[in-house]
Amino acid sequence: MLPEAKVVNFQEGEGAFHPGQSSQSSDAGGSSFQSGQSSHAAGGHDDTVELESVDEEEEQMQNMMDEEDEDGVDNEVDSDESGGSDTSDDNEEADPIPSSWNHDLSEAMIVDDRHDSAWEYSMNTISVGARYADKRHLQEAITQWAMNTQRVFRTTISSQKFLTVVCSDARCPSRVHGYCPKYDTTWVVSDFVPHTCVLKSMLKDHRNLTSTLIARLFYKEIVENTAMGVKAIQRRVHLQYKYVIEYGKAWRAKQTALENRFGTFYDAYDGVVRLLQTLKDRNPGTHVDIQDFVIPEFPNVRVLHRVFFAFSICIEAFMHCRPVMCVDGTFLTGRYKGQILTAIGVDGNNRYMAARSLLDPLIDQKHRASHLEADPQSMEPLQTRTPKKNWMIHPQWEDRLKWAGLLPFARLVEARDHISRLNYDAALITCLVDRWRPETHTFHFRWGEMAPTLQDVSMLLGLPLAGEPIGPLEETVGWMHSMDARFQGVRADVGPMTFEAHGPRQAWLHEFQIEQFGFPDVPMTAVQITRSLEAYLMWLLGKTMFTDNHGNTISARYIPIAQEIAEATEAEHIIQRSWGSAVLAATYRGMCKGCQLTSHGSGIVGCPLLLQLWSWARFPIGRPEIRDGSWPPDELYDAERIDMPTFGSLWTSRKRHFGHNQLRNCYPAFTEQFDLLLESDVTWEPYSEDHRDEAYPGGISNMCTRDWAYWMTKAKIIFDIFVEEMSQQRVMRQFGLRQLIEPPPPTVPLPPRVHAYNRKGANKTAAGWLQLLAPYITGWANAPAVSWATMEAFDLQEFEHYLRAYMPRTRLRLSQACDPVQRDPSTMWDTYPRHSTSGTRHHAAVLTAELQDDAAQYARSLSSGPLLGRYEHHASFAQRLPRHRQPPVRMYSPSPFQARPPPRRGGGRGRGQ
């Protein structure tokens, strides 16, 4: 907001000054411009009294111009700004821009219209008679005006008393002239001619918007947040001024702002020597050693090489320090080359480990969390490459899916007539990815570390863990012709297979859904059932279990597996695979990659369904309510207890409801809510027996608990060529076990080069990849025998010690949220149980009695009061109506966004999804 010059409004027909009328002919009144009549035009009017007042105004303006002319006779033009030219090359910005133009003018402009003293504010206007505190503020106002009018100007006169700028278009008469009156310090605009040039196109960048000006406009933001990136400055300029500046200009603006605040590198190197000498003089016993060298080309310049200093009190105290075991990393090579790395074994308390950072600086500088911390508006949610429609399951597929261990998972994504498809919440999933740390393979929250584990995969998805790991996948030679031949003639109205190099197109596979054959009204042949199952397995593997960034095609590497399962006639014909470990490995790899993606349109790969169900099971953020209650014992019952619900079935197979004020798919709100969530809001053990008996009275699938021996294994998990490491020792509270203050490292750490395996530029065959991954494939066969052996129960006191050591070593908040201590006063509407409500039915009798007593007391109070008339009754109801429209239950949160309370099954009341 800039000051606005107050313009005198004359009556129609009055001979008055109009801004922008300088040096032009008058209106149709007949009077022409006379010499000395600067910036005025005459007009006719019959009222002589009003004409006299107009003459007085013109006389005052004429005196101002005469004073300017007299004052400028002997005035010399500044040598550093003469001609208005600037020879510095600032991205072709200097045409010309004096170096001292960049200051805030929000309170600089003053206006004196000879009638009253007025300080008025408007948006970047220039008017004759407007006054400015000094020349710099006038220059700033002209620049702001030029940017808003999409015009570029150049300076023709710039001296101690005069300033004149004209339009860069030589054919345009636009001109702004200002001067400093005699015996005054303010500057006055005495002449203003508007633009007559026509804009040929909108300017993407403005030459007058220099890096120096940008540095002053965003000085506070850059100085307060020195980690602010150059691209963030580009976005801020575009957001506020609608100009797209180049990267180099934004970089120079940041450097200029930092140099204005902290000085240049030369100043810093020069000042450190004087500072150390002063410290040595004022602290007797302090040792200072400064080494420098001389450049032969500049013998009179001494360049600082290195310094060493030690305060006397530290020298004396060091003699009394306890000995410690250290690893001096000064001469380390590789990724830590040149860094001083010291690892302390045990500190003076003989208990707590040294607070080494959990974050790798090379990873952290690319991490989404660091970008969010620097600029919360710079990130957008990652996209989920998930299917838009679920597939129906044919009854004759069930045996083959059961033999393969995929039937419980297939039920989670089965198309149902009365249930809508699960909508993936990309914002919620992205908030989890933002907190994923590849260094530890855990989420870093304020309440500690958490992570999806093999237990979550078994309980939520019902996928098997025992079996062969899904190692390197490879498409067969000539898969296009063989697959096209298999599907030829299955549907007469479907043409030849459409495909790309990556695999068959998803749209072509959709033509073989069972409803396309007329199921259930039209019976299907054995060939149609087999081929439709093969197409379904391609969709199940490529679009739900192992999603990738190919939106229109499905990888041809899944064809051999899909064909094997679809054509099996007995269970022995299908290889038993560890689907659960593969899904977790793919999800871990997707998060390790996704947490460093910052570009527009980036996606999260792996299994988004696992992340969303895991979040709903543990956090109240973005979680719906399931109103249908528990799972009926007679629904989906299997004599083998395999085709039965999992802990994720209620979320996917029942109607989901959200409160009318509950946020969904809101990335900024979810980011803040995770920062403000309390430890007591987290459901640490969602798979307890009480929870299972309440939600699934008929029991759950045996696949959920069959492979429990793998849950705590130290073995590496594998999918394709990707090898991932689990960190159960860092998330022991999720299992209800004791969390050590310093979690032990893996027995055999995964080498970084193995974790970085990818197919980009790798021309290895499946045999070559098998040779590289052989140790990890063999290790999975012995996975149950190699596990984290700890059966000690969870200890809250020791967990607090763990948090004390964990919190200073990582990033706990990603948003610039309010202080959680500053909360709004809670009301009776803001209360709800902050713990699991399982088992509360045992206290129902006591609660019912208390409610009856309260209701009776309120009834007696109402009956004893005076009766209201009809008018009073309506007025009272109108006052209570807004309160009744509020939700009956909502979560108390210091955030302005309301989160949902943890329900019996998850969520609050509201509309259906």
From TrEMBL:
Biased composition (Low complexity): 20-42
Cross-referenced InterPro entries: AminoTfrase-like_pln_mobile, MAIN-like
Species for this entry: Lolium multiflorum
GO BP annotations listed: meristem maintenance
Region (Disordered): 1-105, 878-913
Biased amino acid composition, Acidic residues: 49-95
Regions of compositional bias (Basic residues) in chain numbering: 902-913
Name this polypeptide is given: Aminotransferase-like plant mobile domain-containing protein
